[in-house]
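USER: Study each token:
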Amino acid sequence: MTSILVETPHGPARAALHCAHEPRAALLLGHGAGGGVEAPDLVAACHAANAVGVHVALVEQPYRVAGRRAPAPAAQLDAAWLAVVDDLGERWFDGLPLVFGGRSSGARVACRTASEGQAVAVLCLAFPVHPPGKPEKSRMPELDGVEVATLVVQGETDPFGRPSPAHHRELVLLKGDHSLKASIDDVGRAVGEWLDRVLRPLD
């Protein structure tokens, strides 16, 4: 694992690089609003991706690197993420297809930036469809706006809601809540199988 700092318009971000043998693609994963890249589901996704020949960058947003707990506004998160994508795409992942992903808030960033960042697929762990108890404040337009193959891994009892499948969007429901801690092995299995399948036409 290699950890590097990447300059963004909103301060330095940090990327922890986990390299695969003979890589076929690269997966960039963002963290949730109040958590870090050590979240169990992100770690499981990282290991699963490496196992099927995918480099992984676990990306810490600048507000986390600076020691702040409150997340930055969406526009700042997106701008910082795209700066990291550009940097790593040139420095480490040149010529490789890029998959965007993350958990919770990180999944929202991945969805919002997928088109501009030219992601070939999007991985959403615990996508927060709406704030708990407030289904009227839906974030589904962010998920619906993704035009490439998408996997959503969601806990059956997630208080942030449950998205529906769509023609290019798969939904895997697992036992547990928003943390997905109750089904970590299943998270890794779902991510690995999906990545292997969606990347096959690009090999």
The longest strand covers residues 54-60.
